[in-house]
């Protein structure tokens, strides 16, 4: 390989450091919420406050290589150039240099450092609209540097902004393209040309009513690390760079299949490698994500389970993901991301857990999917016999899709992908309805036969119910303020309490929780009930679990300042009635949900 990924990292940073830029390093893949997106999808995203005018502690000229996650085009993964995790080589001017310097430096690094042929470079600039004028300035600068005039194209699409956001910087951009086949480039742009990066000239701020000029003009450069590595090595397949090749070779060895044979086996290998890499990066992130059924965890679960299905397609199982993850950590990314090496055992363990969970039900789920398809085919065959004008139905029902999700752990997107492979669609609206119906039933079940999950309303059960309030408050203090109730069940002998948390409590955490609860019991605090509107309760800091079941007026229960909850009751009159609280057992309920069983001893 002519250019290794390690060399490319070094060359990018060294070049911009020679232009007085400071390397600010990479930040978490997880968005901070300021731009309304789940993951960092662009290298500039973490710099948003500084692009809007705040002073950066490291100055006005910055550079880095930032990891990103983008899943909007996940269905394209499997071709030669799409990835869910990727890195962006970036550099920024925060109110310092502008178009003249930036076009010159980009041209210099592409042609002098990276050795691309200037006569094959193509560039696109903004064609202009009612928001901003045609970018003749950038076009003229490009020609003066040596880009052929006939290789410069004016496009309306050359405008950069983060979609769906407001109060974010934006402006015209200058995109750079290079032919995939650099020996025999297509004479027609953009046939066979691929974008390798762009320079965004942030002159405006996007607001609710349109665009307003920024006080300081900024430059935001983003070049795809994976794609640049592809071009510098004269390749037309991103999975043949040293970022992926060790993993592809490992998959070949395990499966006995050849990547170079192409077809479905090659596509499967690409998907396995790409999704394994993203799983490593998300789990090993400084804000580590774990597979779950919501948010970023759901995206991770979807990727991992999709990868496992493709493992099975080439005769492997989930262990192939673990093997791929180990190579990514130790051979490919450990030097650039030291946290991966530090957390290697944890990352591999979490991948194994998710693989084992899905492997346990995947075969049964596939059988269930085939039953859905066969049922649909039989129905179509029967109807066609009795009615020649009958139009075949090609939609898998929403309830069937939900059963695959609920019982067999198939993300909806996986069912949709399987359906597409069979020429079918999925009733997404029906799935959403079935999901909501299930959630409503769960609310009722989790509330228990009686209020508060109690199996009876005896004094003992009532005491246990009061203890669950103390337990939840203690968990919030010891584990995380984000802990919330996921279900409870109370009888004469114990309380059972489910809550969101990624792992079992340590012995020290168990002891802390028990200590906090017992302190409140020993203080013999009155349990105070007060009725108020739901809005008043929220304003006063009372929390609840199943808010959709509440009416306009709710009952609130306070146990001093320690616990303040909206609840239907019943409760002990004062905490001294409860006895001594002890956690007797911890259990896993599902990914991200843990269960505590506790007893009260007199």
Comma- or semicolon-separated keywords:
602 residues, alpha+beta, 9-stranded mixed sheet, 4-stranded antiparallel sheet, 17 helices
Describe the structure.
There is one protein chain. With 602 residues, the chain is of the alpha+beta class. The protein contains 17 helices and 18 strands. It has helices at residues 5-17, 48-51, 99-113, 136-145, 225-232, 245-255, 263-283, 295-313, 319-333, 338-342, 344-386, 398-408, 412-421, 428-447, 459-478, 507-522, 534-539, and strands at residues 22-23, 61-69, 85-94, 122-126, 152-155, 159-160, 168-179, 193-207, 210-224, 395-396, 425-426, 485-490, 495-500, 527-533, 553-559, 563-566, 580-590, 593-601. Strands 1, 2, 3, 4, 5, 6, 7, 8 and 9 form a 9-stranded mixed sheet that branches. Strands 12-13-18-17 form a 4-stranded antiparallel sheet. A 3-stranded antiparallel sheet has the order 14-15-16. β4, α4 and β5 (152-155) form a beta-alpha-beta unit. The protein starts with a helix and ends with a strand.
């Amino acid at each position: 390989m002519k250019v290794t990924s390690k060399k490319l990292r070094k060359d990018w940073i060294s070049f911009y450091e020679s232009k007085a830029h400071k390397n600010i390093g990479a930040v978490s893949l997880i968005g901070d919420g300021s731009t309304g997106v789940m993951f960092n999808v662009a290298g500039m995203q973490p710099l948003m406050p500084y692009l809007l005018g705040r002073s950066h502690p490291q100055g006005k000229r910055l550079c880095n290589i930032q990891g990103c996650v983008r899943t909007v085009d996940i269905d394209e993964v499997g071709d030669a150039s799409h990835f869910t995790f990727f890195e962006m080589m970036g550099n920024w001017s925060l109110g310092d240099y502008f178009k003249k310097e930036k076009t010159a430096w980009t041209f210099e690094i592409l042609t002098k450092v990276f050795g691309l042929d200037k006569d094959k470079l193509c560039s696109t600039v903004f064609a202009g609209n009612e928001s901003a004028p045609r970018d003749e300035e950038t076009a003229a600068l490009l020609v003066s540097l040596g880009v052929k005039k006939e290789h410069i194209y004016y496009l309306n699409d050359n405008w950069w902004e983060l979609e769906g956001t407001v109060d974010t910087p934006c402006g015209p951009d200058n995109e750079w393209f290079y032919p995939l086949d650099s020996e025999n480039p297509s004479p027609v742009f953009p046939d066979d040309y691929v974008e390798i990066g762009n320079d965004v000239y942030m002159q405006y701020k996007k607001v609710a009513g349109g665009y307003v000029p920024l006080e300081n003009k900024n430059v935001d450069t983003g070049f795809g690390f994976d794609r640049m590595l592809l071009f510098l090595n004269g390749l037309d397949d991103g999975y043949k760079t040293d970022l992926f090749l060790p993993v592809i070779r490992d998959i070949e060895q395990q499966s006995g299949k050849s990547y170079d044979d192409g077809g479905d086996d090659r596509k499967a290998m690409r998907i396995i490698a790409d999704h394994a890499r993203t799983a490593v990066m998300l789990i090993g992130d400084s804000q580590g994500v774990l597979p779950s059924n919501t948010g970023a965890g759901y995206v991770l679960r979807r990727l991992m389970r999709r990868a496992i299905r493709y493992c099975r397609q080439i005769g492997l199982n989930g262990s192939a993901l673990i093997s791929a993850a180990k190579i990514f950590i130790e051979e490919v990314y450990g030097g650039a991301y030291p946290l991966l090496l530090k957390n290697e055992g944890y990352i591999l363990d979490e991948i194994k857990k998710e693989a084992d969970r899905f492997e346990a039900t995947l075969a049964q789920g596939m059988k269930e999917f085939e039953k859905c398809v066969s049922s649909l085919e039989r129905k179509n065959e029967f109807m066609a016999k009795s009615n020649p004008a009958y139009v075949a139905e090609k939609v898998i029902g929403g309830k069937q899709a939900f059963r695959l999700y609920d019982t067999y752990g198939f993300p909806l997107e996986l069912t949709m992908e399987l359906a597409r492979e069979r020429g079918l669609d999925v009733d997404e609206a029906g799935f959403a309805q079935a999901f909501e119906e299930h959630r409503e039933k769960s609310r009722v079940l989790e509330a228990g036969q009686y209020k508060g999950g109690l199996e009876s309303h005896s004094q003992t059960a009532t005491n246990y119910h009061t203890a669950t309030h103390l337990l939840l408050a203690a968990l919030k203090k010891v584990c995380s303020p984000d802990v919330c109730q996921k279900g409870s069940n109370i009888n004469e002998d114990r309380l059972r309490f489910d809550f969101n948390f990624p792992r079992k409590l340590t012995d020290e955490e168990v002891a802390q929780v028990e200590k906090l609860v017992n302190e409140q019991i020993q203080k013999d605090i009155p349990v105070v009930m007060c009725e108020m509107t739901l809005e008043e309760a929220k304003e006063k800091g009372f929390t609840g679990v199943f808010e959709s079941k509440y009416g306009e007026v709710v009952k609130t229960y306070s146990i001093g300042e320690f616990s303040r909850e909206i609840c239907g009751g019943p409760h002990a009159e004062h905490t001294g009635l409860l006895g001594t609280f002890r956690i007797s057992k911890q259990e896993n309920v599902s990914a991200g949900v843990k269960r505590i069983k506790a007893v009260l001893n007199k």
